């Protein structure tokens, strides 16, 4: 990632934090203390996710951290140090996370939880959208969202596995 991209990531992160603080301030002005506390908890959780990720990424995976900072809906909750062995894997994972972010925004999904690990030279990501009660009959919204994500991320070296309890695992080779 070059300097301009790093500055853009920092700008996006600052913007996200400032927006969250404005929401808290608004709730407090309206005397909705419970909602203000929930908003602060969400911000605190998000910052804790970044701190964990920062401590886990290997130096050659630093672009993953910069990528995560720019994502408003995707939360990387678990990352094992050294998951990505190659620059190509780092780039593929960042592209995949950005596509998931874009699909979440388009699908009205506020949060997507991601865990990552490595197995046999492949990177795996467990991706779990947080769906609300408005998922529709038999989870139609969820199925539609997954279909879109798989279409948007279809490229060589990306392989989706069958669903497991609302989440899916994607493997990135190379």
TrEMBL record:
Pfam families: SPOB_a
Domain of life: Bacteria
Domain called SpoOB alpha-helical: residue spans: 5-48
Keywords for the protein's UniProt record, in alphabetical order: Kinase, Phosphoprotein, Transferase
Matching InterPro entries: Sig_transdc_His_kin_SpoOB, SPOB_a
Gene Ontology molecular-function annotations: phosphorelay sensor kinase activity
Protein name (Swiss-Prot/TrEMBL): Sensor_kinase_SpoOB-type, alpha-helical domain
Species whose genome carries this gene: Alicyclobacillus macrosporangiidus
